[in-house]
Amino acid sequence: MLVTSYFLICLVVEMRILNNIRNKQKIKFLDEWETLLFSYLENTGLPDELVNKIPRRKYKYLLGYLGEILLTLKGKDFDKLAALITSTKLSGYLLAKLKSNSKRNIVFSSFFVGLAKIEKAKPILQMKVKKHNDQIFFSCSTALARINSYESLDLILTEFKRYRHYGYLLLILTEFDEKICDKIIEMMKTELPDQFIVTFIRVLRYYKYQKGGQTALTVLVYSYSKEILIESLKFIEEIKYKNAIPAVSKLLEHSKPEIRSQAIKTIMKLDSKAYEDKVYSRLFDNNYEVQYQAAFAILNCCDDGEEKLSELAYDLQNSNAAAVSRMLISEKKVKEG
Amino acid sequence: MIIFRYMTFLYNYLLLIYSIAIGTIYLLLNILSFKRIIQYKQKMAYVDLKKIFKFQNYKPISIIVPAYNEENTIVQSIKSLLQLEYPEYQLIIVNDGSTDGTLEKMFTHFSIRQVSFIPLYKLDSMPVKSVYMSSLYPSLVVIDKANGGKADATNAGINIAKNPLITVIDADSILERDCLLKIVRPFMENEDIIAVGGTIRVANGCEIIQGNIVKIGIAKSWLARFQTVEYLRAFLFGRNGFDVLNSVMIISGAFSCFSRDALIKIGGYRKGSIGEDMEIIVRMHEEFRIENPETKITFIPDPVCWTEAPERLKILRSQRIRWQKGTIDSIRLHLKMLLNTKFGALGLIAFPYYVIFEIVGPIIEVSGYFVFVFAYIFNIVSTPFAIAFLSVVIIYGVVLSILSVILEELSFKKYPNIKDLFILFAAAVFENFGYRQIIAWWRFKATIDYISGKRSWGKMEKKGFN
Questions:
Q1: Going by C-beta distance under 8 Å and a sequence separation of 6 or more, which residues neighbour residue A74?
Q2: Is A16's Cβ below 8 Å from some Cβ in B?
Q3: Which residue from B56, B116, B399 is facing A326, i.e. has the nearest CB?
Q4: Cα(A78)–Cα(A66) distance, rounded to whole angstroms?
Q5: Which CATH superfamily is domain B50-327 in?
Q6: What is the pLDDT of residue A213?
Q7: Residue A263: how many CA atoms within 13 Å on its side-chain side?
Q8: Mean pLDDT lowest for which of A23-27, A91-95, A227-231, B217-221?
Q9: Which of residues 277-316 of A touch B (CB under 8 A)?
Q10: How much is the ipTM here?
Q11: What is the number of structural domains in chain A?
Q12: Does some domain include residue A293?
């Protein structure tokens, strides 16, 4: 055991030393190349001229640097920097790595081919998505989404069933452009598991996709799932879809407090005046969260909200409603100085 | 005489078996933890936390900070806590009857004004004198109350906490900026989760500016270095390993996050409890897992809270005695969970582990050292046995400590300086010669004190960060 520990220590220290050396090399490389990159962005030189000067073993430093910038850029500068990958030897370098069997190479290269939107990578990425490995699935699906490969959507969703981590699916789907919303609305006309519906509605909400209102309303009327109802309410609130008001108002009386609470938030954003009294009655709900949302909505959305809550705040018979009202009024007064 | 020699001989073999058993359990926990941390790291590598929080699926948090005589650090602590990355949180400072200028400092620096508040819940606590809110920072609430201890102060904080998640932290703890985003994720992913704990690390040796860690380093004193390795072992291995079995029995009071409804349902923290942070977790298991066997209390290795480790033996002794008494107290109060199949691995593995190795363990270990020396001097055990015994005791200890440092290096790499890594490895070896035995002795003493009825908490002094 001691011998094994000794070897493990040596290994870890060696890894750390190598890591430090690589970091130093990277910093040195970036010091030298940063100026060149900026002058390239200012229209001096062709992508090839710049990349040809870099030895192959240092490609990863350049890519690492480009990756961080490309993630945040859009427009002309993005195209110009992406050209450093798409119109140079770097593209061949990445495609070769993508074709390899090494998980590390696939994950590394798929990130850049997706970011630079290299169309040629699509067939390889589609093959790799089927690899039965969650890391490869996630990175290749994300790359396909960044390339907006809608023809791969079915494949991604089919393969996703193996992993069932809906947080990942959400991240993948939001990498597609806004057109994904039409596809989603189409898919929502078919029968789907609840978690898929929740994820799809979240994507619609991410894009604030107005045309999705009717779909969300249909879901709101026919679904019994707590998660689906809450997500639909949030989406309807986000896009202010007024046609949903009658359906939302019915949920103010729902048996689950989480739904009542979300329904209050949504209805007050859609039409606070007409439902003031109904929301006020929720101040006497048996659930704190519902009471809090009702008080918050009344205070912030009704003209005489503060007066109404002040009356209640000192009516100690309704102590819970009074406590919540008093807390919110105090907060408001302190905020207003 | 022969019977005595025979008994001593047998006891030594029992000790050897005990040492092998505990070492093997730790090794198994190590394997489970290795796997889990690697999975966790891979999972987090994909996740863009800020993007996820854009979807507004987060739950707002109320952070409760009980503070007693913290005038030297309270202002910096609050400023640092107000800078945490989280979309919506309320910060509640509970001044637990401080006798120094803690409250006055808050008046001066945060323009707090008295407001009219009625408690939202009815958890038991000492009377609240006043509630204040800051006009500079609307999310800051200060409660001034009569002294009642940490559990009592936390209950007072819960009573006015408006958000569905509650995080409890120590006033002198330093949280990493994104730790709330990480600690809340389990609640977002699984509705059955009622409490989540994060990793505590030793801040001694780190550079701290205005309540934030700006440079991570290793403490200068060996006592703090040993504790650094000890914390790595306890958090990266111990708790992660038990978490795989859904048997986390303790979440550090320095940084924990709870579902407010769960806290209210069990009546909050138990007043007068010695180890309130362990007791509440064990009670939560007992209350909720019968009702819903899917209930989970979990631990995640990533959200990090930095704390000051004692650098004086006297203070360390008082801390460890308190921890040991707290463990025994929590186990005693919920002893009916022992070997109870209703609690799954918790009742069948974690609870017996705590009874055998954490409560009875120090007695066996300390008495074992004496009996072993006695037996060796009087030739009751042979030299090969003595070598085997010492090898098992020392080598297991060294290997386990080294493994924890290796795991830290392979996963989080918090210590950027390679010199610090060597120091950690050295501390992992040296702590087995003297430090471990001293800790065992204090735990032994605490166990004996507890059994004989001396159950006071002891006093914990802190030097405070520079």
A1: none
A2: yes
A3: B116
A4: 10
A5: Spore Coat Polysaccharide Biosynthesis Protein SpsA; Chain A (3.90.550.10)
A6: 96
A7: 27
A8: A23-27
A9: 288-289, 292, 313
A10: 0.80
A11: 1
A12: yes
Q: Which helix (H) or strand (E) holds B201?
A: strand B193-202
Ordered by start, the domain boundaries in chain B are: 2-29+343-451, 50-327
Contact (CB, 8 A) for A114 and A145: yes
How high is the mean pLDDT in each 10-residue block of chain B (466 residues)?
80 84 86 85 69 74 95 91 93 96 94 87 92 92 94 95 95 91 89 94 92 92 96 88 92 94 95 88 95 92 90 94 94 94 93 93 88 85 81 85 90 90 95 93 94 70 54
pLDDT of the residue at B174: 92
Q: Which residue's structure tokens are 């994300």?
A: A142
Residue B350 identity: A
For chain A, percent of residues with pLDDT exceeding 70: 98
Buried b (16+ CB within 10 A) or exposed e, A106-141: bbbbbbbbbbbbbeebbebbbebbeeebbbbbbbbb
Q: Flag if B421 and A2 touch (Cβ within 8 Å).
A: no
Domain that holds residue A262: 240-337
Residue A221 in contact with partner chain B when CB distance is under 8 A: no
Q: What is the rounded CA–CA span in Å between residue B52 and residue B49?
A: 5
Cβ–Cβ contacts within 10 Å for residue B208, how many? 17
CB contact under 8 A, A167 and B52: yes
Q: Cα separation of B104 and B111, whole Å?
A: 10
**According to the model, what pLDDT value does residue B81 have?**
95
Residues in chain A: 337
